[in-house]
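Structure in, sequence out. Go:
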């Protein structure tokens, strides 16, 4: 199966970056670092990309400093779900797109935003019914985009995990601000609760400090080229790592985020490409294989080179996934997205 995994990821390189941040782009932006200063700061941190999601406008994507691949287009609006059951139905949501011009088309397609048009156009934060909001998510997907519910437990208030779920194959921001924060612990519990309920939700990471670039909540993508159009299909498919470690994984011919019958199949995974922010010469690391019941196997891994692991999932398992721990710090540093058992419905 090692040859199968290598073939499935053939022609793809590793990229580390940030999926949720904001710049000082003028207008209604509320970041503190001008976009022109991001490239040098990102290079110093070993970051390949950053999703700049400035609020209520599109102008950040049309500034001279904008560079495709280095930056991922999108925005972070807010809404209240009018017919939601949560104690507080307010929420934000991240829209990531492969092409910056697609955002204006999306906003125009939903008149609720009142988008004023053009590269200096602004828009408001409308209220949505749950049905209409799901139509928006479907429209984002249809344009090759990726929808993420960011900092979910920090804005919406509900004890019912389903209040945070709108569509399968969307993102839920699990690592928030950093890997070792109270916010991350709360969001991780929410994500695992949704997985236990049978929801096919992808774990994402976001720094969201509205400041200069930081490497405390990175994402790892294996993509064909350094471009948003190359990143987005893998994000939308769930084939990426929430965290600064590369996880490549397959069951049969199916990679992370997909569905495959587990009957008579092996899980093969390669743990590699640790970002420098989590590499310490005196630290020990391990990889855990998990199903819906928790950890089923653990393997010691090194932060240098490739670590290959093989596991035979149970035919009745609902899904299998891989996490990476810094054992020395007792800290979860990477979360791979699941492969779901296609025979389980």
């Amino acid at each position: 199966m090692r040859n199968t995994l290598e073939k499935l990821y053939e022609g793809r390189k590793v990229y580390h970056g940030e999926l949720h941040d904001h710049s000082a782009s003028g207008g209604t932006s509320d970041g503190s670092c001008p976009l022109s200063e991001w490239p040098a700061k990102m290079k110093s941190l070993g970051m390949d990309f950053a999703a700049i999601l400035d609020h209520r406008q599109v102008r950040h994507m049309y500034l001279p400093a904008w560079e495709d691949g280095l930056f991922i287009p999108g925005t972070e609006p807010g809404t209240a779900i009018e017919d939601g059951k949560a104690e507080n139905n307010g929420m934000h949501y991240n829209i990531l797109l492969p092409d910056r011009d697609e955002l204006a088309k999306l906003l125009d397609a939903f008149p609720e935003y009142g988008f004023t048009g053009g590269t200096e156009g602004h828009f408001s934060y409308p209220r949505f019914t749950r049905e209409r909001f799901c139509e928006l998510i479907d429209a984002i997907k249809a344009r090759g985009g990726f929808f993420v519910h960011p900092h979910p437990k920090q804005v919406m208030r509900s004890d019912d995990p389903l209040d945070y779920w709108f569509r399968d194959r969307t993102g839920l921001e699990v690592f928030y601000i950093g890997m070792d924060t109270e916010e991350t612990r709360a969001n991780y519990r929410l994500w695992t609760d949704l997985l236990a309920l049978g929801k096919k939700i992808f774990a994402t990471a976001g720094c969201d400090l509205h400041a200069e670039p930081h490497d405390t909540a990175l994402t790892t993508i294996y993509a064909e080229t350094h471009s948003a159009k190359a990143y987005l299909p893998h994000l939308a498919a769930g084939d990426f790592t929430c965290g600064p470690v590369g996880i490549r994984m397959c069951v049969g011919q199916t990679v992370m985020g997909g569905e495959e019958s587990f009957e008579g199949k092996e899980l093969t995974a390669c743990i590699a490409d640790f970002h420098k922010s989590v590499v310490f010469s005196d630290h020990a690391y391990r990889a855990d294989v998990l199903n819906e019941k928790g950890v089923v196997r653990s393997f010691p891994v090194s932060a240098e080179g490739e670590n290959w692991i093989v596991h035979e999932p149970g035919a009745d398992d609902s899904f299998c996934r891989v996490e990476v721990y810094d054992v020395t710090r007792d800290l979860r540093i990477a979360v791979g997205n699941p492969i779901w058992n296609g025979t389980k419905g």
